[in-house]
Design brief:
The chain has 2 domains: 2-78, Arc Repressor Mutant, subunit A, CATH 1.10.10; 116-250, Endonuclease, Chain A (2-Layer Sandwich). It is 45% helix and 22% strand. The chain is built from 9 helices and 10 strands. The strands form 2 sheets. It has an 8-stranded mixed sheet with strand order 3-9-8-7-4-5-6-10, with helices on both faces. A two-stranded antiparallel ribbon has the order 1-2.
Length: 260
């Protein structure tokens, strides 16, 4: 029971020694520093410091009797008032931050040179990234390895993804197809598809470039994804992609390749 009380006081913001002094004062009633220190197991000079801290919370009052100074703990109901005061302070801080947030965001977004990078994890993230890419109305340049890892994270919204991706104009697909693995279906009406030799360039994952974004996905043991939003970086990846594209060969679908 006492440990629960102490934990509650810690969450209120009291230090461990402040708690010992406060609980001792509750038990003793009006007392001298010497008696409080003895009861709390804290040295006298430290007890004075703890009492000053408790005073700031409004949990201790003092009075003189003759030539002696006595200290007394306030009614524990005061703790509820302390919490209410803290709530008020937090509300005021929230209002101040909310007031300056638009200006902070303006500063954050002011420079086009600062890339925005987001990190995601999990197979559902891969699906989200693919849907995000498919929703663009801009040319999409996609580079990926067709292997067992890619098959494991097939889109849970494949029909919707295929429908959306059909609207991307003049898009490109560059693949490294592992022998024995058949690429998943894609609408070829708006795409030019080329392939590189998987044995020469073995890798796993995919990179997609669209507008001012680069999507990088790793689909091996743990699916992770990055989105980099920056025009200069996107253009850099386009230049690298173009070099690989120039050395690739047109890809012909295998017999029986069709929409699932």
């Amino acid at each position: 029971m006492m440990e629960d009380i102490k934990q509650s006081l810690v969450e209120l913001g009291l230090a461990p020694k402040e708690i010992e002094v406060y609980l001792s004062m509750l038990e003793l009633g009006p007392s001298s520093v010497q008696d409080i220190a003895k009861k709390a197991g804290v040295n006298r000079s430290t007890t004075y410091v703890m009492i000053e801290g408790l005073k700031k919370h409004g949990l201790v009052s003092t009075y003189e009797k003759g030539k002696k100074v006595f200290f007394v703990a306030e009614n524990p109901d005061r703790l509820v008032q302390v919490v209410n005061e803290q709530i008020g302070l937090l509300s005021a801080k929230r209002e101040r931050v909310s007031a300056v947030l638009p200006r902070l965001l303006a500063i954050f977004n002011a420079s086009d040179e600062k890339p925005k990078v987001r990190f995601f994890e999990g197979d559902e993230t891969i699906d989200m990234i693919r849907m995000d890419v498919a929703a663009f109305r801009s040319p999409v340049w996609n580079f990926f390895a067709v292997d067992e890892n890619l098959k494991k994270v097939a889109s849970i919204n494949e029909e919707k993804r295929i429908e959306l991706s059909s609207r991307n104009p003049e898009s490109r697909v560059l693949m490294a197809v592992k022998p024995g693995v058949v690429p998943q279906y894609m609408d070829r009406s708006n795409k030019e598809i080329r392939a590189i030799n998987y044995e020469d360039f073995p890798f796993s994952g995919e990179i997609t470039i669209v507008a001012d974004r680069v999507y990088i996905v790793n689909v091996q043991a743990r699916s992770i994804g990055f989105i980099v939003e920056n025009r200069e970086i996107a253009d850099l990846f386009r230049a690298i992609y173009q070099a690989a594209w120039n050395g690739a060969k047109p890809w012909t679908p295998p017999e029986g390749w069709k929409r699932p």
